[in-house]
What does this fold into?
Amino acid sequence: MRRRMFVAALVLGAALTGNAWAGGKREKVPAKEGTGILVSATLEGATIKWKIALDNEGEKVLDMASPIAVQYTEKNGQMLARRVGPPPKPGREGKGRLLTAQGAFVKGEAQGKRFAITLKVGEGEKAAEQTFMLPSQVTVSYQEGPPLTALSLEATRKAEKPEKPGGNKPGKEAAGVKAPENL
It folds into this structure.
């Protein structure tokens, strides 16, 4: 009898706790995605204000918390950024050849077809400023709300070339040989 009462109390406690947590959760707003051109980035307190000219929605200002992470590759001495967003959870650093740098945002400025993002990486006396080059054409993931919140900025991937009807390799038609028509 005691065992049944203990199990019943345990189940009832779990149910009440579950209801309390469900009532306290805020409704999850789905993220939107858009492509556009990065215009500017400024730091106001601990918030980065990204100004982006979105293709379909005009110019928008999106907020992001200042300690950020940049996923990048190194090529010819330059650090080419692929993604900018919040610092990853432990154990989820870079994938493959991508490296990850985390730090405080210093400044961002347009330089032709690229956008230079400067971070202060490290702590104390060992902190150094590093500049990462992100293409101006970006895909942004954001949430709407009283402040528009940027979840991540990524370099827009180039669209793949569509396949030719007969394949991408030249066949017999390119060599002047016609296929039989009576098949």
Summary: Strands lie at 32-44, 47-54, 58-65, 67-75, 78-85, 99-111, 114-121, 128-135, 137-143, 149-155. DSSP finds one helix and ten strands in the chain. The radius of gyration is 25 Å. The longest helix spans residues 2-24.
